[in-house]
Amino acid sequence: MNFSNKLISWYLQNNRDLPWRKTKNPYFVWLSEIMLQQTRVAQGMSYYLKFTETFPTIFDLAKADESTILKMWQGLGYYSRARNLHFTAKHIVSEFNGEFPSTYATIIKLKGIGDYTASAIASICFDEPTAVVDGNVYRVLSRYFGIDTPINSSKGIKEFKELAQTLLDENQSGTYNQAIMDFGAIQCKPKKPLCMFCPFNESCVAYQKNKIDVLPVKEKKLKVKKRYFNYLVVKTDDNNTILNERKGKGIWQGLYQFPLIESDKIINKDELISLEEFINFFPEATTISLYNKKEIVHKLSHQHLYTQFWVIETATLSKAKIDWKSVEKYPVPVLIANFLEDFLSKK
User: Fold this and answer.
1) pLDDT, tens digit, for every residue of 127-156?
2) Domain 3-214, CATH 3.20.20.210 — does that match?
3) Top-level class of domain 225-345
4) Residues 57 and 98 sit within 8 Å (Cβ to Cβ)
Protein backbone atom coordinates (compact mmCIF):
# COMPACT_ATOMS: atom_id res chain seq x y z
CA MET A 1 0.00 0.00 0.00
CA ASN A 2 1.49 3.39 -1.03
CA PHE A 3 1.92 6.41 1.25
CA SER A 4 -1.29 8.24 0.33
CA ASN A 5 -3.51 5.15 0.51
CA LYS A 6 -2.11 4.15 3.90
CA LEU A 7 -2.53 7.71 5.17
CA ILE A 8 -6.16 7.98 4.00
CA SER A 9 -6.89 4.55 5.49
CA TRP A 10 -5.56 5.79 8.84
CA TYR A 11 -7.63 8.97 8.53
CA LEU A 12 -10.90 7.17 7.87
CA GLN A 13 -10.46 5.37 11.18
CA ASN A 14 -8.99 8.19 13.29
CA ASN A 15 -10.18 11.54 11.93
CA ARG A 16 -11.34 14.22 14.34
CA ASP A 17 -15.02 15.14 14.40
CA LEU A 18 -14.80 18.85 13.56
CA PRO A 19 -17.71 21.09 12.46
CA TRP A 20 -15.91 22.52 9.41
CA ARG A 21 -15.32 18.97 8.16
CA LYS A 22 -19.08 18.56 7.65
CA THR A 23 -19.29 21.14 4.89
CA LYS A 24 -17.66 22.11 1.62
CA ASN A 25 -18.83 25.69 2.00
CA PRO A 26 -15.61 27.66 1.38
CA TYR A 27 -16.66 30.42 3.79
CA PHE A 28 -16.66 28.03 6.75
CA VAL A 29 -13.51 26.23 5.65
CA TRP A 30 -11.72 29.57 5.16
CA LEU A 31 -12.87 30.79 8.57
CA SER A 32 -11.60 27.63 10.28
CA GLU A 33 -8.24 27.69 8.48
CA ILE A 34 -7.57 31.34 9.38
CA MET A 35 -8.55 30.77 13.01
CA LEU A 36 -6.38 27.68 13.37
CA GLN A 37 -3.22 29.39 12.15
CA GLN A 38 -1.01 29.65 15.26
CA THR A 39 -3.94 28.27 17.31
CA ARG A 40 -4.75 24.80 18.60
CA VAL A 41 -8.12 23.26 17.66
CA ALA A 42 -9.14 23.02 21.32
CA GLN A 43 -8.65 26.77 21.73
CA GLY A 44 -10.07 27.80 18.37
CA MET A 45 -13.26 25.71 18.47
CA SER A 46 -15.31 28.06 20.68
CA TYR A 47 -14.26 31.05 18.56
CA TYR A 48 -15.26 29.26 15.37
CA LEU A 49 -18.69 28.37 16.76
CA LYS A 50 -19.22 31.92 18.03
CA PHE A 51 -18.20 33.45 14.68
CA THR A 52 -20.38 31.15 12.58
CA GLU A 53 -23.35 31.81 14.85
CA THR A 54 -22.85 35.59 14.78
CA PHE A 55 -21.82 35.76 11.10
CA PRO A 56 -23.56 32.81 9.37
CA THR A 57 -22.68 34.13 5.91
CA ILE A 58 -19.83 36.06 4.37
CA PHE A 59 -22.27 38.96 3.91
CA ASP A 60 -22.80 39.15 7.68
CA LEU A 61 -19.06 39.20 8.30
CA ALA A 62 -18.49 41.84 5.63
CA LYS A 63 -21.00 44.32 7.07
CA ALA A 64 -19.82 43.96 10.69
CA ASP A 65 -17.78 46.68 12.39
CA GLU A 66 -14.06 45.91 12.68
CA SER A 67 -14.21 46.71 16.39
CA THR A 68 -16.90 44.04 16.89
CA ILE A 69 -14.79 41.45 15.05
CA LEU A 70 -11.67 42.32 17.06
CA LYS A 71 -13.63 42.05 20.31
CA MET A 72 -14.88 38.58 19.33
CA TRP A 73 -11.33 37.62 18.31
CA GLN A 74 -9.93 38.74 21.68
CA GLY A 75 -7.76 35.99 23.15
CA LEU A 76 -6.80 34.34 19.85
CA GLY A 77 -3.88 36.68 19.22
CA TYR A 78 -2.26 37.54 15.87
CA TYR A 79 -4.99 40.13 15.30
CA SER A 80 -3.90 40.86 11.73
CA ARG A 81 -5.71 37.60 10.91
CA ALA A 82 -9.02 39.12 12.03
CA ARG A 83 -8.43 42.39 10.16
CA ASN A 84 -7.49 40.52 6.97
CA LEU A 85 -10.51 38.25 7.40
CA HIS A 86 -12.79 41.27 7.53
CA PHE A 87 -11.06 42.99 4.59
CA THR A 88 -11.31 39.86 2.43
CA ALA A 89 -14.95 39.27 3.32
CA LYS A 90 -15.80 42.80 2.16
CA HIS A 91 -13.70 42.28 -0.99
CA ILE A 92 -15.47 39.02 -1.90
CA VAL A 93 -18.88 40.62 -1.36
CA SER A 94 -18.07 43.71 -3.41
CA GLU A 95 -16.00 42.11 -6.19
CA PHE A 96 -17.49 38.59 -6.46
CA ASN A 97 -21.05 39.16 -5.21
CA GLY A 98 -20.30 37.03 -2.18
CA GLU A 99 -19.20 34.01 -4.21
CA PHE A 100 -15.90 32.63 -2.94
CA PRO A 101 -13.27 32.24 -5.70
CA SER A 102 -13.01 28.59 -6.73
CA THR A 103 -9.39 28.12 -7.88
CA TYR A 104 -6.07 28.17 -6.08
CA ALA A 105 -4.79 30.87 -8.44
CA THR A 106 -7.59 33.27 -7.51
CA ILE A 107 -7.87 32.31 -3.82
CA ILE A 108 -4.19 32.97 -3.10
CA LYS A 109 -4.58 36.56 -4.34
CA LEU A 110 -6.93 37.33 -1.45
CA LYS A 111 -5.52 39.31 1.47
CA GLY A 112 -4.43 37.19 4.42
CA ILE A 113 -4.37 33.95 2.42
CA GLY A 114 -1.09 32.19 1.70
CA ASP A 115 -0.15 28.95 -0.04
CA TYR A 116 -1.35 26.66 2.75
CA THR A 117 -4.81 28.20 3.17
CA ALA A 118 -5.35 28.56 -0.58
CA SER A 119 -4.40 24.91 -1.08
CA ALA A 120 -6.71 23.78 1.72
CA ILE A 121 -9.74 25.68 0.41
CA ALA A 122 -9.11 24.76 -3.24
CA SER A 123 -8.70 21.04 -2.50
CA ILE A 124 -11.37 20.59 0.19
CA CYS A 125 -14.10 22.74 -1.36
CA PHE A 126 -13.36 22.56 -5.08
CA ASP A 127 -11.40 19.28 -5.48
CA GLU A 128 -8.39 21.02 -7.00
CA PRO A 129 -5.32 18.77 -6.59
CA THR A 130 -3.00 21.12 -4.71
CA ALA A 131 -1.13 19.90 -1.64
CA VAL A 132 -1.19 21.64 1.73
CA VAL A 133 2.03 22.22 3.64
CA ASP A 134 1.73 23.43 7.23
CA GLY A 135 3.61 22.65 10.44
CA ASN A 136 2.00 19.22 10.69
CA VAL A 137 2.90 18.34 7.11
CA TYR A 138 6.50 19.54 7.50
CA ARG A 139 6.87 17.32 10.56
CA VAL A 140 5.36 14.20 8.98
CA LEU A 141 7.34 14.45 5.75
CA SER A 142 10.66 15.42 7.34
CA ARG A 143 10.46 12.48 9.75
CA TYR A 144 9.14 9.90 7.31
CA PHE A 145 11.68 10.72 4.59
CA GLY A 146 14.49 11.78 6.94
CA ILE A 147 14.80 15.28 5.44
CA ASP A 148 16.97 17.71 7.41
CA THR A 149 16.57 20.76 5.16
CA PRO A 150 15.38 23.59 7.45
CA ILE A 151 11.63 23.95 7.03
CA ASN A 152 11.78 27.74 7.47
CA SER A 153 14.38 28.25 4.73
CA SER A 154 13.48 29.18 1.16
CA LYS A 155 15.06 25.92 -0.02
CA GLY A 156 13.05 23.89 2.49
CA ILE A 157 9.75 25.57 1.67
CA LYS A 158 10.23 24.77 -2.03
CA GLU A 159 11.49 21.21 -1.39
CA PHE A 160 8.64 20.22 0.90
CA LYS A 161 5.97 21.75 -1.32
CA GLU A 162 7.24 19.80 -4.31
CA LEU A 163 7.42 16.57 -2.29
CA ALA A 164 3.93 17.08 -0.87
CA GLN A 165 2.56 17.59 -4.37
CA THR A 166 4.06 14.32 -5.63
CA LEU A 167 2.45 12.38 -2.77
CA LEU A 168 -1.02 13.90 -3.20
CA ASP A 169 -3.84 11.57 -4.21
CA GLU A 170 -5.30 13.70 -6.97
CA ASN A 171 -8.59 11.79 -6.99
CA GLN A 172 -9.31 12.69 -3.38
CA SER A 173 -7.07 15.64 -2.71
CA GLY A 174 -9.25 17.22 -0.02
CA THR A 175 -9.42 13.98 1.98
CA TYR A 176 -5.68 13.41 1.61
CA ASN A 177 -4.84 16.94 2.75
CA GLN A 178 -7.05 16.64 5.82
CA ALA A 179 -5.56 13.21 6.50
CA ILE A 180 -1.95 14.39 6.60
CA MET A 181 -2.87 17.40 8.77
CA ASP A 182 -4.72 15.17 11.25
CA PHE A 183 -1.91 12.62 11.19
CA GLY A 184 0.56 15.29 12.24
CA ALA A 185 -1.75 16.61 14.95
CA ILE A 186 -2.79 13.25 16.44
CA GLN A 187 -0.14 10.63 15.60
CA CYS A 188 3.11 12.31 14.56
CA LYS A 189 2.95 14.94 17.30
CA PRO A 190 5.82 17.36 18.00
CA LYS A 191 6.45 15.83 21.42
CA LYS A 192 5.98 12.15 22.25
CA PRO A 193 4.65 10.99 18.87
CA LEU A 194 2.83 7.64 18.89
CA CYS A 195 5.52 5.78 16.97
CA MET A 196 4.82 2.36 18.48
CA PHE A 197 1.34 2.38 16.96
CA CYS A 198 2.18 4.20 13.75
CA PRO A 199 1.27 2.53 10.43
CA PHE A 200 4.48 3.97 8.95
CA ASN A 201 6.98 2.96 11.65
CA GLU A 202 8.64 0.24 9.56
CA SER A 203 9.43 2.68 6.75
CA CYS A 204 9.89 5.94 8.71
CA VAL A 205 13.51 7.11 8.46
CA ALA A 206 13.39 9.16 11.66
CA TYR A 207 12.00 6.22 13.65
CA GLN A 208 14.45 3.72 12.20
CA LYS A 209 17.45 6.03 12.75
CA ASN A 210 16.32 7.41 16.11
CA LYS A 211 16.00 10.98 14.77
CA ILE A 212 12.44 11.72 15.91
CA ASP A 213 13.54 14.45 18.33
CA VAL A 214 15.74 16.29 15.83
CA LEU A 215 13.33 16.46 12.89
CA PRO A 216 12.05 18.69 11.47
CA VAL A 217 14.99 21.13 11.45
CA LYS A 218 14.43 24.86 11.88
CA GLU A 219 16.90 27.66 11.31
CA LYS A 220 17.59 29.76 14.40
CA LYS A 221 14.88 32.26 15.25
CA LEU A 222 15.32 35.99 15.32
CA LYS A 223 16.59 37.39 18.59
CA VAL A 224 13.75 38.21 20.98
CA LYS A 225 13.44 41.93 21.68
CA LYS A 226 12.68 43.16 25.21
CA ARG A 227 10.28 46.09 25.61
CA TYR A 228 9.16 47.86 28.78
CA PHE A 229 5.54 49.03 28.95
CA ASN A 230 4.03 51.35 31.55
CA TYR A 231 0.25 51.56 31.26
CA LEU A 232 -1.44 54.52 32.92
CA VAL A 233 -4.79 53.32 34.27
CA VAL A 234 -6.76 56.52 34.89
CA LYS A 235 -9.57 56.75 37.45
CA THR A 236 -11.33 60.10 37.81
CA ASP A 237 -13.74 61.05 40.55
CA ASP A 238 -16.65 60.72 38.13
CA ASN A 239 -15.51 57.16 37.27
CA ASN A 240 -14.03 57.83 33.85
CA THR A 241 -10.87 56.55 32.21
CA ILE A 242 -8.92 56.70 28.95
CA LEU A 243 -8.60 54.03 26.27
CA ASN A 244 -6.80 54.75 23.00
CA GLU A 245 -6.95 52.78 19.77
CA ARG A 246 -3.55 51.47 18.65
CA LYS A 247 -2.70 52.80 15.19
CA GLY A 248 0.06 51.99 12.72
CA LYS A 249 1.45 48.64 11.64
CA GLY A 250 2.84 47.44 14.97
CA ILE A 251 1.35 44.88 17.34
CA TRP A 252 -2.36 45.03 18.24
CA GLN A 253 -3.42 47.43 15.51
CA GLY A 254 -7.07 48.36 16.00
CA LEU A 255 -7.19 47.23 19.64
CA TYR A 256 -7.56 49.57 22.60
CA GLN A 257 -5.21 50.22 25.48
CA PHE A 258 -4.62 52.56 28.39
CA PRO A 259 -2.20 55.46 27.75
CA LEU A 260 1.22 53.90 27.34
CA ILE A 261 4.68 55.15 28.20
CA GLU A 262 7.41 52.88 26.88
CA SER A 263 10.72 53.03 28.75
CA ASP A 264 14.12 51.46 28.09
CA LYS A 265 14.06 49.50 31.37
CA ILE A 266 11.82 48.74 34.34
CA ILE A 267 11.22 52.05 36.13
CA ASN A 268 9.96 53.01 39.58
CA LYS A 269 7.38 55.60 40.54
CA ASP A 270 9.88 58.48 40.90
CA GLU A 271 11.34 57.76 37.48
CA LEU A 272 7.86 57.59 35.95
CA ILE A 273 6.62 60.92 37.28
CA SER A 274 9.83 62.67 36.26
CA LEU A 275 9.30 61.77 32.59
CA GLU A 276 8.25 64.69 30.38
CA GLU A 277 5.63 62.49 28.74
CA PHE A 278 4.02 61.84 32.14
CA ILE A 279 4.20 65.48 33.24
CA ASN A 280 2.52 66.65 30.03
CA PHE A 281 -0.22 64.09 30.49
CA PHE A 282 -0.95 64.85 34.14
CA PRO A 283 -0.37 68.54 34.90
CA GLU A 284 -2.73 68.33 37.89
CA ALA A 285 -2.23 66.54 41.22
CA THR A 286 -2.66 62.79 41.08
CA THR A 287 -2.37 59.72 43.30
CA ILE A 288 -0.20 57.02 41.77
CA SER A 289 0.11 53.37 42.76
CA LEU A 290 1.69 50.37 41.07
CA TYR A 291 -0.99 47.70 40.63
CA ASN A 292 1.23 44.71 39.91
CA LYS A 293 4.12 44.52 42.38
CA LYS A 294 6.16 42.42 39.95
CA GLU A 295 6.31 43.21 36.26
CA ILE A 296 4.15 41.04 34.01
CA VAL A 297 6.08 39.42 31.16
CA HIS A 298 3.88 39.02 28.10
CA LYS A 299 5.58 36.90 25.43
CA LEU A 300 4.95 37.44 21.74
CA SER A 301 6.71 35.63 18.89
CA HIS A 302 9.63 38.07 18.58
CA GLN A 303 9.29 40.30 21.62
CA HIS A 304 8.76 40.09 25.36
CA LEU A 305 6.80 42.90 27.00
CA TYR A 306 7.77 43.69 30.59
CA THR A 307 4.65 45.46 31.80
CA GLN A 308 3.63 47.59 34.76
CA PHE A 309 0.13 48.93 35.35
CA TRP A 310 0.10 52.27 37.18
CA VAL A 311 -3.26 53.29 38.65
CA ILE A 312 -3.61 57.07 38.40
CA GLU A 313 -6.38 58.61 40.51
CA THR A 314 -7.25 62.22 39.77
CA ALA A 315 -10.21 64.49 40.38
CA THR A 316 -10.80 65.26 36.73
CA LEU A 317 -9.07 64.91 33.37
CA SER A 318 -10.41 66.32 30.10
CA LYS A 319 -9.11 63.35 28.10
CA ALA A 320 -10.91 60.82 30.34
CA LYS A 321 -14.20 60.32 28.52
CA ILE A 322 -14.84 56.58 28.81
CA ASP A 323 -17.05 55.39 31.67
CA TRP A 324 -15.50 52.48 33.56
CA LYS A 325 -18.84 50.66 33.18
CA SER A 326 -18.27 50.43 29.42
CA VAL A 327 -14.57 49.48 29.42
CA GLU A 328 -15.23 45.77 28.87
CA LYS A 329 -17.00 46.50 25.57
CA TYR A 330 -13.74 47.54 23.91
CA PRO A 331 -11.48 45.03 22.10
CA VAL A 332 -8.18 44.91 23.98
CA PRO A 333 -5.03 42.73 23.90
CA VAL A 334 -5.02 39.71 26.23
CA LEU A 335 -2.40 41.45 28.35
CA ILE A 336 -4.91 44.20 29.19
CA ALA A 337 -7.91 41.86 29.29
CA ASN A 338 -6.21 39.83 32.03
CA PHE A 339 -5.46 43.00 33.99
CA LEU A 340 -9.05 44.21 33.66
CA GLU A 341 -10.46 40.87 34.80
CA ASP A 342 -8.44 41.10 38.01
CA PHE A 343 -8.80 44.86 38.50
CA LEU A 344 -12.56 45.00 37.98
CA SER A 345 -13.17 42.06 40.30
CA LYS A 346 -11.68 44.13 43.12
CA LYS A 347 -13.49 47.39 42.40
Assistant:
1) 999 999 999 999 999 999 999 999 999 999
2) no
3) alpha beta
4) yes
